[in-house]
Predict the structure.
Amino acid sequence: MNKKEVAELKRLFHPDRTPITRVCGCYVDAEKNKKAKLKEAFLSLPEEEMFKYFDIFKKTLSGSIGRNLLDMEFPLEQEAGGGAQEYLMKLRASQLKDDDLLDAFYDKVIETFLYPENYYIVLIHCAYDIPKRGTDGIEQIDASEYVYEFLLCSICPVNLSKPGLCYHEDTNTISERIRDWFVEPPVTGFLFPAFTERNTDIHSLLYYSKNPDELNAGFARELLGCELPLSAGSQKDTFNTLVADTLNDSCTYETVKNIHASLNELLEEHKDDPNPVLLDKGDVKRLLAQSGADDETLEHFDEEFEQASGSTQTELYVTNVASTRKFEIKTPNIVISVKPECADLIETQVIDGRLCFVIPMDDSVEVNGIPVKTGISVADEP
């Protein structure tokens, strides 16, 4: 799925156009007991309550593709009889009206979702009439050709509100606030089936994780039958390892700066493309070759790539490996951080026999927020 397809689904969570037919929920305590269950026609809920649920559903489709939102394909064995995909297909076909299927789903979540506190499992069934788009890209609401029937699951922590004082209007007094249990935004969830090329893709699902570096791989594997790709942090570590190990003695400051400049240029070229920009093994190899790695250095690159990433088929998201917000240099005692587009301001020079980073100064310098005099004025500049 790409960001336009995700955005299209998020726009559905509004009272005037919601495709949600049914909402079900199960409140689980810290001892893994099912304390309360919900099963309602969604449109029967009060509007104020609908909006609270809409916030949860939108959050489950939020974040960056390849970071918080991950496409996962079902292995062939999971599409066979008794596999996770078959079970999800049955659950979708039931439109969440089968209590036995729902209870089995809740039990599987409770068994596989490792969380030490209370949480709320929310599951919705939706039927979206996909509007046809004309050649001009404008949606034709009355020209729907397909119905995208899907499930969205959100798992939300439930915590006690913070203690404090509050004003009681009925008694006109200030006193201790009554603490109650409230549902927080989701920490994980999934969309099944995926909405690929604006249509149903039963071979894939979209997985959500609030924390991109804590993907809960065991939960995804046991409940959904899918293997998660490398986390965002692991992808960056993998790329950094490949660069350092492949370039070895050629891994200089200028070389690394040029690599990240190339990555940011690639993102800029594709900024209007809804699909994420990916690097496969060949792309990384070409990038390193352009950055100074010779044929002898790259001779064993394929093996190094597999060892670092776990597979020769691994793809890395450029947004995960590029430094898009800051260009950072670290030494044991000093950290230098600049915007990526300003990286050329930092140069290297040999001073008194030592290689040094040199940063040009102008007449506008602050130290701890205090403007300081540099002894340089515009008139002094050559």
Observations:
- The chain has a mean pLDDT of 89.
